[in-house]
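Project outcomes to date are best conveyed with an example. Our students and postdoctoral researchers have been running inverse folding experiments weekly, and each run begins with a structure described purely in tokens. The record below, which covers 231 residues, was selected by the lab manager from last quarter's runs and is presented without edits.
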């Protein structure tokens, strides 16, 4: 059973005035880390490093770092091989629980961050925006997980997590759970704030916010989308 936000109204965790005050309080930079998950093998891309793929003039990782650095001081990358990321001057941590998939990556990100809140991004999302990431952070004070729910489903690899969520994920991994949404919703006590598709719409006018690059076709499309957005 998923826990509802305190006022029980889907899509309205707190009022606009309250949100401004809470956002200011939780923008204490020392309370936040960001973690970019880059540990996948990218088999459908022939093993290429997704984070290093260029969309327009910048690699996807560079685009993400440009968004994150004004918001968060502590940024890390979760990957087993640090070599491809040396040029980015960002700490790289290896999986604490190898071969446990995305859930293991999330667990590693939150544990390695060692802060109250962790903003987690997959490395293959080239079209994220600062306003959207700021919204994730703004919703975090009253939840263990701030989870976007787009028209394509839940987006747990572009979400905000509390330190407590990391502890729960560790226990779920030990119990054999591997699916991220099972770990999130299969645990009583985690407070989950879903951002609905209607709430996401103002941040996604072109329908590209959660576009991810998994295949050569995706990459070609992303390059084309970027060219179109720049026109």
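After processing, the design step wrote out the following sequence:
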């Amino acid at each position: 059973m998923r826990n509802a936000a305190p006022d029980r109204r889907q899509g309205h965790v707190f009022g606009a005035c309250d949100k401004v005050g809470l956002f200011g309080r939780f923008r204490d930079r020392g309370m936040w880390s960001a973690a970019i998950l880059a540990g996948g093998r990218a088999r459908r891309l022939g093993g290429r490093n997704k984070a290093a793929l260029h969309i327009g003039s910048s690699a996807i990782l560079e685009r993400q770092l440009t968004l994150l650095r004004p918001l968060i001081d502590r940024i890390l990358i979760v990957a087993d091989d640090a070599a491809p990321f040396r040029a980015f001057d960002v700490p790289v941590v290896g999986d604490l629980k190898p071969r446990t998939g995305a859930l293991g990556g999330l667990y590693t990100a939150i544990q390695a961050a060692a802060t109250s809140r962790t903003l987690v991004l997959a490395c293959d999302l080239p079209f994220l925006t600062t306003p959207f990431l700021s919204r994730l952070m703004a919703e975090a004070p009253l939840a263990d997980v701030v989870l976007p729910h787009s028209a394509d489903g839940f987006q747990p690899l572009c979400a905000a997590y509390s330190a407590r969520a990391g502890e729960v994920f560790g226990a779920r991994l030990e119990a054999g759970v591997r699916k991220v949404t099972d770990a999130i919703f299969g645990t009583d006590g985690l407070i989950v704030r879903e951002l609905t598709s209607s709430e996401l719409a103002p941040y996604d006018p072109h329908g590209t916010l959660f576009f991810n690059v998994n295949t050569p076709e995706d990459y070609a499309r992303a390059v084309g989308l970027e060219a179109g957005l720049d026109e």
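The chain has a mean pLDDT of 87. The longest helix spans residues 216-230. The training component of this project remains on track.
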